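User: Sequence in, structure out. Go.
Assistant: Echoing your sequence, followed by the structure tokens.
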Amino acid sequence: MRDGCAMAGYSDYMDPEETMRVLRAFESEGLDYVLIGAAAMAFHGLIRATGDLDLFIRATPENIERLRAALRDAYNDPHIDEISSADLLGDYPSVRYVPPVGELYLDVLTRLGEVANFETVESEVKDVDGIAVRIATPMALYRLKKGTVRPQDHVDAAALKERFNLQDEK
């Protein structure tokens, strides 16, 4: 919140300065990523409360090292070295990173089962305050959310469908 009103593109729970610091670090380190989840929806103008950044990253050891470098730039946290290629390239390819300061946390995935990964999620690059941010398209977000068991995902999918006049694929 700034001057008593929520900033465009962010929920009340996300600190916009912290979010932009992390996205700037991603760009600076050349991380191959795509934002998914509620933060991505916010960048498309559909804002709901969230406290995390959900993202797919390209599943390579080099890109995982770029992730660690970006997080070091943003947080200077020695625990970042615990994020391993073995974790993100293994059977359960996700890591939740909770920084020692701030309110934002990150859910980092290299794939979501056989459903999606960095290479298969349609995305677009948006300029956000001079930072190139790769964001899943509304249709990609809809596809990720419409068939889950989580009730909030059903609400999100309905909002995406209505706002962007999306049609189910046959």
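User: And one key feature?
Assistant: Confidence is low (pLDDT under 50) at residues 1-12.
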